[in-house]
Amino acid sequence: MIDSRTASHVLSQIAAYLELRGENRFKARAYVTAARGVLSLGVDDLSPLLASGDIGKVRGLGPATLSVLRDLVDTGSSRYLDQLREATPEGLLDMLKIPGLTAEKIHKIHQELEISDLAELEEAARSGRLAKIRGFGPKTAERILKGIAFSRETGVLALYPHARAEAEHLLTLVREHPEITDAAIAGDVRRYREVASGVTIIGCCLASARSADVATSFTRIGGVKSATGAGTDTVEIHFVDGVTLRLRCVAPQHFAVALWRATGSAEHVELVRARLSERGVVVDGDELCDNGSVALSIPDEAALYRAADLDYIEPELREAEGEVDAAARHVLPRLLDRADVRGVLHCHTHYSDGKSSIRDMASGAQARGWSYIGISDHSAAAFYAGGLPREKVLAQFEEIDHLNEELVHGRFRVLKGIEADILADGRLDYDEKLLARFDFVIGSIHSRFGMDGPAMTERVLRALDDPFLTILAHPTGRLLLSREPYAIDVDAVIEKASALRVAVELNADPHRLDLDWRHLIEAKRRGAMVALGPDAHSVNALDNVGVGVLMARKGWLEASDLLNARDADGVIAFARSRRH
Q1: What is 4-154's CATH superfamily?
Q2: What pLDDT shows up at residue 20?
């Protein structure tokens, strides 16, 4: 049985190989389009769609791609993909993981230097051979070296939303097994880690003697590339689409303890284990036993924490960041809930680089239950993103005023904002007269990422002094799995932002999630206000708020810590409180 995810991955790999081989780019693009179309089907078995011919209605599928799908369903593999793999050095595919290194550039490197893997590429970059290729140069070689190191660190990781989707898909498969009575996601995904190293699932097997057989049976499902642990109750399965599943099947009486052990960080588990030991309770595998080695009844994780004299600790907090001490003292935070979010800030429209109109963005926010939306298109300095000159700002103001007149009886408001570039010297784009007309002002860095730490920190600290700045957006500039944060003293920025009452942003774009949850804990400790921004460039991207709430919870945030938990008047009052 071949599902749409597996089929989509195969089509995507074919496209990648075609690009790496320098084939016609339109041919490669056809496979990319087909991969997207197949993925959108979201089905567990493509066979019925192929048999009925309905799959031919999917956008982008033609005779060649349909042939690949038929081969995949009939044989479990693609002969065309196998042929491309045999004819293409496998190491070239690894090079695609390096930020900024396109398939076209990889093909050129391979043709001119006969380089076939990362080790050879690294050597060529260090020796100067790479810099001699026309169109490359020393700076490109240096960036590639940094990219190789970054790729090695992040190569097995996936962004949280992608990992979560894979986990939900695999959880459904596990729960469908007739001998599994319950199953739950554990590990990185359950703790809302911003990137995850794979999917961990604990399955509850009614007949404990069958746990090993049940776990092993999953190594034989469709799309498996390789597996380890067959014959035991714990298997690690690597799928052809790059996903790794760690599955453990246990008896019902062991389920809660096994889930707890597989969820928390190693440090968290050890801290709780130590408290249990102090109270005469021993963690023996997946059991809790008293001093007489008698197994205790632990029906759920809450019972385990009670045995350690602790309040229940939510999975996302189990990182050894002070949560065990807080649970012992009964001072765990009342974590933010999605219902606490009353409106959204940091949203783009087609006035700059967004895809939707102001009206559509407002309707989307209203449909999601919010009472306001803050429009914040790019300022003039961001010319590459359609930044707004003064006349377009004034035109947008007029449109927002008209829209608010329509919406007045619907108790929904559109706020006038801007994402103003923080220039190299720390000044905000636009003059004070124009900045004063916005309901709120977001400041962000979109240029000169390579400044050294002291200079970048001073740049941001100077921006915080501007009385019109309301929110500091994506403060570290990171792009998860593709760009490291720029050099900046985050603690110094948070401290000054707190003192000057500038909100720091939790940018909820899944590629950013910036501030990081670890910095959010520090922001809360210092009393800084946090603004949750979806950085939405379309109506659908407003849903980034969901991921943002999860990361806010992981950062210990409560409703009182969040600017968006205030109503529209509260947001405007916060912004104006700094102006003088």
Answers
A1: 5' to 3' exonuclease, C-terminal subdomain (1.10.150.20)
A2: 87
